[in-house]
Amino acid sequence: MMFVVILQLLDIETSDMVARLVSLKGILPGCNVAYLVQQQPRFFLEGSRESIHQRVAASVGALRAGLEGADVDAMVTHDPLILSLDVASGLLRLRELWPEEDVDAAALAASDPVELVLAIRALCNKVSLPVTYS
């Protein structure tokens, strides 16, 4: 299946591919966009350049605004498909657990990006976490 996707993407004109990568780099300057596309080619390349730009920019913008100080680029590098989630709902639920007065930009900057991804993903998907007893 991945082979078929790659073949379809090979039909993209070189100039359009470059424009798509430059657009992604503008939104995610700290990310290796070639790596992101390699990991999730369909998500980052399928559709019009404008629709991809709008979708990615909206999700990244929501993450940057809702997690001010956090390394959003590292979060996306770890889990590119976090951008496919309804991050606004996850951020809202995260702020219910971590009010802004308790978790500020400095605390988010010191947070592990992988753990932030896991928290947002869990809250977006409304997954109930298992209870462990010690």
What string gives the helices and strands in order? Answer: HHHHHHHHH
Morphology: elongated
For this entry, what is the oligomeric state of its chains? single chain
Q: What is the beta-strand fraction? A: under 5%
Distance between the ends: 44 Å
Structural class: mainly alpha
Low-confidence stretches: 126-134
What percent of the residues sit in helical stretches (DSSP H or I)? 55-70%
Helices, by number, come to 9
Measured on Cα atoms, how large is the radius of gyration?
16 Å
Number of E-state strands: 0
Largest sheet: none
Summarize model confidence as the mean pLDDT: 86
Describe the structure.
The chain has 134 residues and is mostly helical. Helix content is 65%, strand content 0%. It has 9 helices and no strands. It has helices at residues 2-9, 14-27, 33-39, 41-45, 49-66, 72-78, 87-97, 105-109, 113-124. The longest helix has 18 residues, at 49-66. The termini are far apart. 21% of the residues are buried.
Key descriptive features of the protein:
mainly alpha; 9 helices; 134 residues
Task: Describe the secondary-structure layout.
Layout: H1 2-9, H2 14-27, H3 33-39, H4 41-45, H5 49-66, H6 72-78, H7 87-97, H8 105-109, H9 113-124
Please sum up the structure shown.
Helix content is 65%, strand content 0%. The protein is mainly alpha-helical and 134 residues long. 21% of the residues are buried.
